[in-house]
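Risk register update: the risk of archive-format incompatibility is retired. Evidence:
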Amino acid sequence: MVDTGMVPGPHPSRANRTGDMLNQLKNSGVNPEDVDLVLITHMHIDHVGWNVDYSGSEPKPTFPNARYLAPQLDWDHFTKPEFAKDAPWVAENILPLEEMGLLELIGDGYAVSDEIKAISTPGHTPGHMVFDITSQGKKAMVVGDLLHSRVQVERPEWTAGVDTDKEASQKNRKMILDRAESEDIVIAAGHFHPDDHIGKVITMEGKRFWQVIS
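Archived output:
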């Protein structure tokens, strides 16, 4: 699994948050026990929400058989006191995993397996990562928040307001888009509409576009 979505209830600090990931997994025939690996692109609230289960008397991992991999540079950033105070979800959804011995911090080029590799793409956050997949002669990438909107495929210089380093965000977005087009890579962009979040990057009449794969 790559990223665990928006924080759910019933934890007190989550009273006004929503999340339905477990039901969506169930509808797809996946139980929490089936997940053996969770990859975290970055440590924002809407990407780490279901890491930890607070439904009982003590916190426990939502995916009990999984190890969790997350960017070292995001850990270094979000655990600093000046940033931690504005990111309580890290204390709730990341730190307990470290205390349980389930969290592994990784860097650029880390080989998750023979088929999956982490690529450092800072900008949105200091440690943001893309996960590069090669399997059976095909290529794909899960890009986290490198892309927030389809318009950024055509205009990679447009950045999200919450990007911590807009220049780096622009540079890495262009780098990944160039590679995606030249290598015919399938891209999974989680912030796109559910009907068009899987696609390829193509150029027509001198302009780059997002081509949806249905």
